[in-house]
Amino acid sequence: MIKRSKVVFVSETLEKTFESLPENEILKKHIRRAIEEIKENAFAGIRIPKRLFPEEYVVKYNITNLWKYDLPNGWRLIYTLTSPNKVEIISVILEWFTKHKDYERRFKY
Predict the structure, then answer these.
(1) Which domain covers residue 45, as residue numbers?
(2) Is 19 part of a structural domain of the chain?
């Protein structure tokens, strides 16, 4: 099922971090591409099973679903979906990883 969504960052700080990346930075280009794909299809990523949710995300963001979008170079973009009015889907970017060790640590792999 393909569902369009609005894409937002979980915090102003994370959005500023993204915006502060240089325009020619490859990571920024790939995150932009991911955002465009997620806008077109909120389910573009890979759904992460609930048993693998990092406790930090559950406590801090009260998530009920979690998605991973694989970027090139082993990088990962993590997001959740919400539907505040049951009509619109909002994809909320929680963070991204450029180091696989950081990703493994967060998810306790």
Answers:
(1) 6-107
(2) yes
**What is the value of pTM for the model shown?**
0.94
How many CB atoms are closer than 10 A to CB 72? 10
Q: Residues 73-92: pLDDT tens digits?
A: 999 999 999 998 878 999 99
- DSSP letters, 73-106, are GG-EEEEEEE-TTSS--EEEEEEEESSHHHHHHH
Burial (CB < 10 A; 0-12, 13-18, 19+), residue 77, is buried
**In this predicted model, what pLDDT tens digit does every residue of 43-65 receive, in sequence order?**
999 999 999 999 999 999 999 99
Residue 68 placed within a domain = yes
